[in-house]
């Protein structure tokens, strides 16, 4: 089983889960159909299932066209009328099996009110949509900041070796922001230098271990971040308040 991205739009990733033995593949959040159709036609492999994390167009925009090619395909996603193409609605703690993959569904609202994530427990793969990014997290749209904070705590409690498959390539900008909040973070400094020096175009997957070291939204209890919050008249001992402040600052960055 191989996981790799197809590029969509400017910075979206459509994650492909390829079962080489069967010639079948699944895709996560196909905002565009063309990259998926082109891949299938080029390789001769066939799309088996679609996994959706939330309703935003850049994640679901390609589904209707894919249905034209694969009319009986299973489409997993949140139980939300805004994702009306879903024919297998799923929710938190619900296990699903797709081929050799066994996913635990995680309710991870915040970015949106019904956002879900897919965690393959044995392989330790996390498909987190727009809730978690490398060195960052998603904006709050119709969810709440408290929900987003709780969702990131769920991720933080996953094994350190978990591979994190985010839906956008935002790592460089996120690291630049992180270093305005925690400028002495040597790991973040070195990682940003590495990305720039090696001209890395795809920084994903990340890992939970790496995110604990570089992601300010995972690090609200670190002293330098607490001092930054206190200078800005935010209670440094209120983790949710610090988290909310960081998200507000990132919105303006």
UniProtKB/TrEMBL annotation:
Cofactor details (free text): Binds 2 Zn(2+) ions per subunit.
Name of the top EC class for this enzyme: hydrolase
Domain of life: Bacteria
Cofactor: Zn(2+)
Pfam families the UniProt entry points to: HAGH_C, Lactamase_B
GO BP of this protein: methylglyoxal catabolic process to D-lactate via S-lactoyl-glutathione
Pathway it works in: Secondary metabolite metabolism; methylglyoxal degradation; (R)-lactate from methylglyoxal: step 2/2
Residues annotated as binding Zn(2+) 2: 58-59, 130, 168
Coiled coil start-end: none
Every Metallo-beta-lactamase domain range: 11-168
Residues at which Zn(2+) 1 binds: 54, 56, 111, 130
GO MF annotations in UniProt: hydroxyacylglutathione hydrolase activity; metal ion binding
InterPro entries in the cross-refs: Clx_II_MBL, Glyoxalase_II_hydrolase, HAGH_C, Hydroxyacylglutathione_Hdrlase, Metallo-B-lactamas, RibonucZ/Hydroxyglut_hydro
Assembly and oligomerization: Monomer.
Family indicated by similarity: Belongs to the metallo-beta-lactamase superfamily. Glyoxalase II family.
Function per UniProt: Thiolesterase that catalyzes the hydrolysis of S-D-lactoyl-glutathione to form glutathione and D-lactic acid.
NCBIfam families: GSH_gloB (TIGR03413)
Designated name of the protein: Hydroxyacylglutathione hydrolase
Species lineage: Bacteria, Pseudomonadati, Pseudomonadota, Gammaproteobacteria, Legionellales
